[in-house]
Design goal:
The complex is a heterodimer of chains A (408) and B (226). Chain A is mainly beta and 408 residues long. Chain A contains three helices and 30 strands. With 226 residues, chain B is of the alpha+beta class. The chains are: A mainly beta (408), B alpha+beta (226).
C-alpha cells in the first residue's frame, strides 16, 4: 500500500471517528434541545406488548390513538417505572447504574443526558427536594446497604452516599423502602424487611419501620416501629403511596397484600404523621381492609379537601399472582381521611396491578380505567358535585393505560 | 489551510465558511497529501489505536483463526503413534456403542439441573434457549412438547413454539398449562408460593413483569440480567 493511499484511508477514518462522536451525527432531528410543551403524557401498552407514550394538551377529547399519534418507547423492556416532571422522563438503567433523562422530540423517545449513580440497582423512592433537585433512595442487595443519590436534573450531576438504616437481620435477607418525607430539617424513611427464597417466594416482616434520620448526614436518630400493619408505602416510580395535605399532615398507606408485601394477614392501613412532628400519630390508624372495602389496596392519591383515592383488589376475582394483573378486578374508593369513611366510585372494574392512574388538576380528578368490556378511558370526577363521566378514549389495539402524568 | 479536529467538527455542524468547506473536502477526497493533518505523533498514535480497536471489534476473534501447524509437530515418536491409534479406535468404538444405545432415547429428552445458589445455567437447543435459575431444574420432551420445571427459568424461543408447561415441584396436576411462546420474546416461568396461592405456576412474557411484586421483579431482572 502506498503512503498516499494509506494517508487517504487514515484521513477518512479520522473524519468518521470525529464526526461519529458528535451528538448531531445521530439524527438531525435530535438537535432540538427543549422537550415539547404538551400538558399531559399517557403511557400505553398495546395488546402486542408494544409500549407508546402519547402526549396531549387535553384529556377531554374524543379518542387518542397511541400507535398513530404516540411515540414508541425504547428500549422495549423499559417498563414504566418512571419519574416525570417538566416535560422530561427519568429512569434508572440498573445494569449500568446510570440515571437517564429522556424527552419526546420529533416522535422519538430520546436520551438527553445521563449520570452514573454508583451502587444503585433499583430506585424505590424518589423525592423532589426542589424543582431541579431530586433525591433517589434504594436498597442495594449486593452491598446490603440503603443508598441515596441527589441529582441536579438541569445539568445531570449526582452526589451519592449511604442512608444509615439497619440492614436486614436474622431471618431477613432483603428490605424495601416505601416512602421518604422531609420534616424539620430531618428525613423520615419508611421501610420493611423481607425473607426471600430463591425466586420462589418471599414474605414481609410483621412491622412497619420508620427511621428519623439527620439530613444531610443520613444518620439514624431513632427507629419507630408499629405492628398494626406492614410494608409502608411502595415503589413510587410505579404509583404513589403517600402525600402531604393542605395542612401539612403526611399520610401513607401500607400494602401487605400479595401484590406488594405478601403478608396479607396484616390489614391495608393508613397512617398519619402530623405537620412538623417526627412520629406516627398515635391517635390515627385507618384500617382499610376492615372497612366496607374488605380487601387489600395499593396506590394512594390525594384529591384535596381531606379526601383521597385508594385502588383496591377484589378477592375471589383473582387466584394468585398469575392473573392478578390481567383480571379486571380493581375498584377505586374515595376515602374521607378524617371520618374514615369509604365511597366506591362507580367505575368499571380496572386491570393492571400497579399503575400511575390518578391525576388531579384544579379540583378535577382524572382517572384512567382499563376495562375489558368498556375499553380504556380517562374518566373525570368532580369530588364537589360527585359528577363522574367517561372522557378521553384511548383507542387502537390498547391493552393497558399504564401511566397518566402531567408534563407541563 | 490546516485541517484539525475543530475544523472537521465545524464542517459537520455546517458552520464552515465556503473556503473552509472546500479545504476539508479537498483534504478528505484528494489523493495528494498537500494539507497536512495537524496532529502530534502522540495524538496520531492514539487515534490509530482507537480506530484499530473499533475495527478489531468487528473482526473474528484471534482464537477462531486456524492455526497453521508445522509438519514437525505431527511427527510423533512411534510409541505416541501407537497410543494415539489405540485411543482413536477405543473412542470410536465406545462412541458408536453410546450412540447405538443412547441416542434414540436421549434425542428428544433434555434435562438440566442447576444446583448453584447464585448462578444460572444455560441450555441451548435448536429451537430455544433456556436459562435455568439457581436451585432450579428443567426436563423437556421435545416430542410431546412437555416442559417440566421446578424453580425459575427463562425461555427464549427461536421460533413460535408450543409447550405444555408443568411446575412439577409443587402440585403438578394443578399446575399444567399449554402455551404458545413467540419467536424472539423472553418468557419467565416460575413456581411461586404466595399467601393467596401456595402452589402457583406462572408464565409470562417479560413485558408483563410489572404485574409481579416489586421485590420479585427486581430479583428476576437481576438474576436473568433482563
Amino acid at each position: 500500500m502506498t503512503s498516499v493511499t494509506r494517508d487517504v484511508i487514515f484521513r477518512i477514518f479520522y473524519f468518521i471517528l470525529i464526526v461519529s462522536g458528535l451528538p448531531g451525527c445521530v439524527n438531525e432531528k435530535q438537535k432540538e434541545e427543549t422537550p415539547g410543551k404538551k400538558k399531559y403524557s399517557i403511557y400505553a401498552m398495546m395488546k402486542d406488548g408494544r409500549e407508546y407514550i402519547v402526549q396531549t394538551d387535553s384529556l377531554t377529547g374524543e379518542t387518542i390513538f397511541p400507535e398513530r399519534q404516540g411515540t414508541k418507547v425504547v428500549p422495549a423492556s423499559l417498563y414504566y417505572d418512571l419519574i416525570v416532571r417538566d416535560g422530561y422522563y427519568y429512569r434508572l438503567d440498573w445494569k449500568t447504574s446510570t440515571f437517564i433523562k429522556y424527552s419526546v422530540n420529533n416522535n422519538s423517545f430520546t436520551e438527553k443526558a445521563s449520570v452514573p449513580v454508583a451502587g444503585f440497582s433499583t430506585i424505590e423512592n424518589y423525592n423532589w427536594i426542589s424543582p431541579d433537585s431530586l433525591m433517589l433512595i434504594g436498597y442495594d442487595q449486593k452491598s446490603a446497604k440503603v443508598r441515596y443519590a441527589k441529582i441536579q436534573v438541569k445539568d445531570m450531576t449526582s452526589t451519592e452516599g449511604m442512608v444509615h438504616i439497619s440492614p436486614p437481620f436474622g431471618a431477613f435477607d432483603w428490605m424495601s423502602i416505601g416512602f421518604s418525607k422531609f420534616v424539620n430539617g430531618k428525613l423520615l424513611v419508611g421501610y420493611a424487611y423481607h425473607s426471600t427464597n430463591n425466586l420462589q417466594s418471599f414474605t414481609t416482616s410483621d412491622t412497619v419501620y420508620v427511621d428519623v434520620l439527620t439530613y444531610p448526614g443520613m444518620k439514624a436518630i431513632r427507629t419507630i416501629k408499629d405492628t398494626q400493619s406492614t410494608y409502608p408505602g411502595g415503589v413510587n416510580t410505579r404509583q404513589p403511596h403517600s402525600f402531604t395535605d393542605e395542612k401539612g399532615d403526611f399520610y401513607f398507606i401500607t400494602c401487605p397484600g400479595i401484590a406488594l408485601g405478601n403478608n396479607p394477614s396484616k390489614p391495608t392501613g393508613i397512617y398519619r404523621i402530623r405537620q412538623s412532628e417526627e412520629h406516627l400519630d398515635p391517635d390515627y390508624f385507618f384500617n382499610v381492609s376492615a372497612s366496607p372495602i374488605q380487601n387489600h389496596g395499593y396506590g394512594f392519591w390525594y384529591i384535596g379537601n381531606g379526601k383521597a383515592i385508594v385502588r383496591t383488589e377484589t378477592k375471589g376475582l383473582f387466584t394468585g399472582m398469575k392473573d392478578h394483573y390481567k383480571v379486571a378486578q380493581f375498584n377505586f374508593y374515595e376515602l374521607d381521611l378524617a371520618t374514615k369513611t369509604t365511597t366506591r366510585l362507580n367505575l368499571p372494574r380496572d386491570k393492571g396491578t400497579a399503575r400511575q392512574c390518578v391525576l388531579v388538576e384544579q379540583g378535577i380528578v382524572y382517572i384512567t380505567v382499563n376495562s375489558d368490556s368498556e375499553g380504556s378511558y380517562v374518566w373525570t370526577y368532580n369530588p364537589e358535585t360527585k359528577d363522574l363521566r367517561k372522557s378521553l378514549k384511548v383507542g387502537g389495539n390498547i391493552d393497558y393505560i399504564l401511566r397518566l402524568d402531567q408534563l407541563n | 489551510m490546516t485541517i484539525n479536529k475543530e475544523l472537521i467538527e465545524k464542517y459537520h455542524e455546517g458552520t464552515c465558511s465556503s473556503e473552509e468547506k472546500k479545504a476539508v473536502e479537498n483534504w478528505l477526497f484528494s489523493d495528494e497529501s498537500a494539507e497536512i493533518l495537524s496532529l502530534s505523533d502522540k495524538d496520531k498514535m492514539a487515534y490509530q489505536t482507537e480506530m484499530w480497536s473499533e475495527i478489531a471489534s468487528v473482526l473474528p476473534q484471534k482464537g477462531s483463526k486456524t492455526k497453521v501447524r508445522q509438519w514437525n509437530d505431527l511427527v510423533f515418536p512411534f510409541w505416541k503413534q501407537v497410543a494415539a491409534a489405540i485411543l482413536f479406535v477405543g473412542t470410536l468404538g465406545w462412541g458408536l456403542l453410546y450412540l447405538k444405545n443412547s441416542l434414540p432415547v436421549r434425542s428428544h429428552i433434555v434435562m438440566m439441573n442447576n444446583s448453584s445458589d447464585t448462578m444460572n445455567k444455560d441450555l441451548h437447543a435448536q429451537e430455544y434457549t433456556i436459562s435455568v435459575g439457581p436451585k432450579s431444574n428443567v426436563e423437556i420432551n421435545n416430542e410431546t412438547g412437555m416442559l417440566d420445571f421446578c424453580g425459575a427459568v427463562m425461555i427464549n424461543p427461536k421460533k413460535d413454539i408450543e409447550f405444555t408447561l408443568q411446575g412439577k415441584c409443587i402440585n403438578p396436576s394443578k399446575n399444567s398449562e399449554k402455551v404458545i411462546l413467540k419467536k424472539g420474546l423472553n418468557y419467565i416461568a416460575l413456581n411461586y408460593d404466595n399467601a393467596s396461592n401456595t402452589s402457583e405456576m406462572i408464565i409470562f412474557e417479560e413485558g408483563a413483569m410489572m404485574g409481579l411484586p416489586p421485590l420479585m421483579m427486581k430479583q428476576i431482572l437481576h438474576q436473568f440480567k433482563i
